[in-house]
Amino acid sequence: MNPIRILSNDDLQRTYMRLAHQFMEPHDDPDQVAIIGMQPRGTFIARSINSYIEHFYGRPLTFGVLDVTFYRDDFRTRMKMPEVHITDIPFDIYGKHIILVDDVLYTGRTIRSAMDALMHFGRPATITCCCLIDRGHRELPVIADYIGKVIPTHATEEIQVRLDPSDSEMGVYLVNREDKHE
């Protein structure tokens, strides 16, 4: 079975636009709001949303990038060497309303790791979560405040988010893991 396309590139752009408006709705002072994209794909999503914010509201929000590799609870138990990405939060997070952006919300462990990492940078006023795809299967009590699309999945399925222009076709795909081994 081939991957099933859930969102096309056009669908992604409409989703980013909607999320940009949703990010701004609850905040009176954009100077107190910051977007932090989680490496790797959450960073691309966050930059895309922030460009829509700049387009519609005249300026982007404060922006940072977070890698949670060393904060994960499974860091030492994974068999392969993890791929580490840059963390760049060039502003004081104290008192800021932080919007964490990731591609897929699954067990909740990555978001928990991100919150642990953020606490090492300071104490934000609030932390909210945005995910492009919520696929269910939580292991921790984590919910997203902003969701691009909810896609219930089975244990044998995975969500592939293809955002790199070098990918054959940008979009979001549902893939059956059992088919990958045939």
Brief account:
It is built from 4 helices and 8 strands; from the N terminus they run E-H-E-H-E-E-H-E-E-E-E-H. It has 182 residues and is an alpha/beta fold. The strands form 2 sheets. The protein has a 5-stranded parallel beta sheet with strand order 3-2-4-5-6. It has a 3-stranded antiparallel beta sheet with strand order 1-8-7.
How large is the count of helical segments? 4
- What ranges have pLDDT less than 50 throughout 5 or more consecutive residues? none
Q: Outline, from the CA principal axes?
A: globular
Helix content: 25-40%
The third-level CATH topology is Rossmann fold
Gyration radius over CA: 16 Å
Spatial order of the strands forming the largest sheet: 3-2-4-5-6
CATH class category name: Alpha Beta
Query: In the CATH classification, which architecture applies?
Result: 3-Layer(aba) Sandwich
Elements, N to C (H/E): EHEHEEHEEEEH
User: What fraction of residues sit in β-strands?
Assistant: 25-35%
Distance between the termini: 10 Å
The overall pLDDT, averaged over residues, is: 91
Biggest sheet layout: 5 strands, parallel
Structural domain count: 1
Number of strands: 8
SS-derived structural category: alpha/beta
Oligomer kind: single chain
Description:
With 182 residues, the chain is of the alpha/beta class. Helix 1 crosses helix 2. The chain has one domain: 3-Layer(aba) Sandwich (Rossmann fold). A 5-stranded parallel beta sheet has the order 3-2-4-5-6. It has a 3-stranded antiparallel beta sheet with strand order 1-8-7. The protein is built from 4 helices and 8 strands, in the order βαβαββαββββα. Helix content is 26%, strand content 28%.
